[in-house]
Write a structure and sequence with these properties.
This is Tat pathway signal protein. The chain has 348 residues and is an alpha+beta fold. The protein contains 14 helices and ten strands. 43% of the residues lie in helices and 16% in strands. α4 crosses α12, α6 packs antiparallel against α12 and α7 runs antiparallel to α11.
Length: 348
């Protein structure tokens, strides 16, 4: 699918005629059969990704869609080895593969260097609860209600994580969750004392709808349960309200209210294995959504280098490094984050 230069507009121009809610509704509209490639990319971009940087570039030729990293959108402070970036690409690939099946295409994915190359072949249409959950899924950074998950729910969540060369550890015992909490708080404290981390994080925060609509990316404050404020008010106040003790209290409450925690770890630390983690990670989020659950990332123990190996050892992972940490439970709906339209992420 080629795109003319006239078809490529800025994010702010693309959203200028729409409110925030209208833009969310448009990006998360039901999947259509045509135009096939644009629709598949649109659904791929609804995947989870680090800081909502959307670090991907798509290219399309005939029945092949490739997903490549957009290194201009990497986060070197929080993700110096780029493992979150390649996990994000794996998440996008999983969405695309699931969406393709509902349109009557079998998608075969292969890792080629930095890229994921997805080849489409005609096949019978195949609907699934996971594919149906793609436009609904979101990361919910809020306290949950503390209810435990039923054994069948846990079985289906574990099943969703199954991926070659990826280990999944699911914890529901309060003592195990408390152990994860200790690492999350220690990691959060280290990050909030790290000036480079804080500069990078704040650069991706969108304090209000106008800021979010101008870029169509980033961490929208209300999507994290925070108020929408003019940036000239929010930025000076950030140091007063966004504190180490306050954030640690919030994370403790969020984990205490969660039904469980899941940790994903690849057998090896390389791009193809991180992409595999991403596919498992996205299926977990979609399965949780399909079951009526919420989830969010608590990746501090894997983002602070001094803690990552120690955290993995506490989980019995041996030489493997934990890559992704998520909590899950029953919780509220929050505003959904924005995604850039396909025209801005497809390379002609």
């Amino acid at each position: 699918m080629g795109l003319s230069a006239a078809a490529i507009t800025s994010p702010s121009a693309a959203a200028a005629a729409n409110t925030y809610d209208e833009t969310v509704k448009s990006s998360r509209a039901p999947l259509q059969a045509v135009p096939r490639d644009r629709e598949l990319v649109r659904f791929a971009t609804l995947a989870a990704n680090s800081h909502n940087t959307q670090p991907w570039i798509f290219s399309v030729r005939s029945n092949v869609i490739a997903i490549a990293p957009d290194f201009k959108r990497r986060c070197p402070a929080v993700d110096p080895d780029d493992h979150h970036l390649f996990v994000s690409l794996g998440c996008a690939a999983e969405n695309l593969i699931l969406a393709a099946s509902t349109l009557g295409w079998h998608a075969d994915a292969a890792v080629d260097g930095n890229r994921i190359v997805i080849t489409l072949e005609e096949a019978p249409q195949s609907t699934s609860a996971l594919a149906a959950a793609i436009p609904i899924r979101q990361c919910t950074r809020a306290a949950f209600d503390g209810r435990p998950a039923a054994p069948e729910t846990l079985r289906r969540l574990e099943e969703a994580c199954r991926e070659s060369n990826v280990a999944a550890i699911l914890m529901t015992e309060r003592t195990a969750i408390a152990g994860v909490t200790d690492y999350v708080l220690e990691g959060n404290s280290a990050q909030m004392r790290d000036k480079a981390f804080m500069r990078e994080l704040v650069s991706w925060i969108r304090f209000n709808e106008a800021e979010a609509l101008a870029t169509m990316d980033g961490l929208f404050s209300p999507a994290s349960g925070n108020p929408s404020l003019p940036s000239w008010v929010a930025r000076p106040l950030l140091k007063l309200f966004f504190t180490e003790s306050g954030e640690n209290k919030k994370y403790r409450e969020e984990l205490d209210s969660s039904a469980g925690v899941v940790v994903l770890a690849a057998d090896r630390s390389d791009k193809s294995h991180w992409i595999a983690v991403g596919r498992a990670c996205q299926r977990f989020g979609l399965q949780a959504t399909a079951l009526g659950l919420k989830y969010s990332f608590i990746n501090q123990p894997v983002e602070v280098a001094a803690l990552r190996q120690q955290f993995g050892a506490s989980l019995g992972l041996g030489e493997r490094h934990p890559d992704i940490v998520m909590r899950f439970g029953t919780g509220p709906d929050l505003p959904k984050s924005l995604r850039r339209p396909p025209e801005l992420v497809i390379q002609s």
